[in-house]
């Protein structure tokens, strides 16, 4: 899952990412659309090794768009990317990502003295 902020509520919005290998079909896209709706995510991404079929592309297109209130831009609600696409530099079409990791707390270590060797 990837998160982003795009409105005044500062509540993170979600992009669900599903990775599939092997034989993929249009039913996989329909399943992801259902998951995106059920999980109240704004965007779904289907990542696969194989090129999508025409039926898969049609299913993705019929999912509609996500209208970002903060950026005033439409993003495909469901996107299909292949590993080859990613290696060529393709990116998920979405508002800028919001950091999902908290920074670790820095530990204060007491001043240590270097120990000598008994020779």
General description of the model:
It is a single chain. The protein is 23% helix and 27% strand. Strands 6-3-2-1-7 form a 5-stranded mixed beta sheet. It has a two-stranded antiparallel ribbon with strand order 4-5. With 119 residues, it is an alpha/beta fold. The N and C termini lie far apart (58 Å). The protein has one domain. The radius of gyration is 21 Å and the shape is elongated. Helix 1 packs parallel to helix 2. The relative contact order is 0.21. The protein has 3 helices and 7 strands, in the order E-E-H-E-H-E-E-E-H-E.
Largest sheet: 5 strands, mixed
Task: Report the radius of gyration as a whole number of Å.
Answer: 21 Å
**Spatial strand arrangement across the major sheet:** 6-3-2-1-7
- Low-confidence spans: pLDDT under 50, at least 5 residues? none
Individual helix count: 3
Strand content: 25-35%
The helix/strand order is: EEHEHEEEHE
Mean pLDDT, to the nearest integer, reads 89
How many β-strand runs? 7
In whole angstroms, how far apart are the ends?
A: 58 Å
Roughly how much helix do the residues carry, as a percent range? 10-25%
Count of the separate structural domains: 1
Gross geometry: elongated
List the defining traits of the structure above.
27% strand, alpha/beta, 119 residues, single chain, five-stranded mixed beta sheet, 23% helix, elongated
């Amino acid at each position: 899952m990837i998160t982003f902020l795009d409105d005044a509520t500062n509540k993170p919005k979600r992009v669900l990412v599903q990775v599939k290998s092997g034989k993929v079909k249009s039913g996989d896209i329909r399943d992801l659309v259902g998951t995106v709706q059920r999980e109240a995510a704004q965007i779904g991404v289907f990542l696969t090794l194989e090129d999508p079929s025409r039926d898969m592309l049609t299913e993705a297109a019929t999912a509609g768009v996500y209208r970002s209130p903060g950026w005033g831009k439409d993003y495909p609600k469901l996107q299909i990317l292949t590993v080859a696409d990613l290696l060529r530099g393709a990116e998920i079409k979405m508002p800028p990502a919001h950091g999902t990791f908290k920074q670790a707390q820095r530990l204060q270590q007491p001043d240590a003295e270097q120990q000598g060797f008994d020779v």
